Amino acid sequence: MQNSLERVRTVIHGSIPDRPPLYDLLRNDAVLSHFAGKTLTLENREEVVYAAYEPAIDATRPLVRLPEAERMVTLEDGRQQRYFRWTIWNEEKRYADSAAYAAAKRAELDAYDPAWSAEKQAGLDATLAKFADDRRRLGEVFYFPGIPGPGLQGIFGEIGLEAFSYYLADCPEIISELLERNTQRAIAWIEHLPADHGIEAGMLGDDMAFKSGPLLRPAWMRKHYFPRLARVIAAHHARGIKVLFHSDGNLNPVLGDLVEAGIDGLNPIEVLAGMDIADIHRRFPKLFLCGGIDVSQLLPLGAPGQVRETVKRSIEAAEGRLMVGSSTELNNGVPLANYLALRDAVLETRY
How far is the C-alpha of 99 from the C-alpha of 35, rounded, in Å? Predict the structure, then answer.
């Protein structure tokens, strides 16, 4: 019988494990309290959250978050940052118009120095130390740390999709140059990893789709995004790092482009957006999948029996290429009984 680390490594390297790994991000008070054996509070949050992961799952991704007291914080630039128990919301940055955005970003791009520096190395060292600390605290849970990419989500996330749409139309060269800067920065980060960086596989997150399809025209993505993504993934692969790509939404129109760019795995497989495990596995049998169990309707509202049946069908459809989990993160809306049904269905499966 394999342990969690062996089980996940087996999947990411293309072989069949003893059973499907359990993969999730735990942001559910009842589940965390159950597996830690102690009720989660703000006072014991650090102890309880990390204690719950190893008995609950085999693998997780960033961010392993602790619950927060609800509050509002004013950032240095005057924007509001709001803390909820399990999420943090940042107010979008505002510019007067497209010209003001272009001018601000042009100044930012002109000030960027691609040369590696002691400051950048210190930042890289601090990030690797945080990864190592999370691995230590998670025990036998396989940890997919966050790894850098072209950063499309960061560009539109700063300003919101409505403003981004205007800026993409009015100053498209700025958006392209920001993607290129992010790409160069990511590759420099990867190339300066030490030989003992310890990252076997990481999660490259870049949300790029609605439930109805990609946020941007596939033709634009094929010109401006996917070639840059391919460069970053090639750099990761050169350092021995497998790439788990994360994006919510319906990726079907660009899934072939993602695979051609070199991704090794896909998360979270948003079922109600039209992502189907059987179809993805049929089209791309070498791709490992993480997630795939609907967390918008089934897990919070379904009966345990429905959850079990869905999990069993999903496992069978993926033929050993699925790490079973929620289709984004296990939030507080999921009853403990439904997560236990998911977990039991996985534990009963043997390949």
Answer: 53
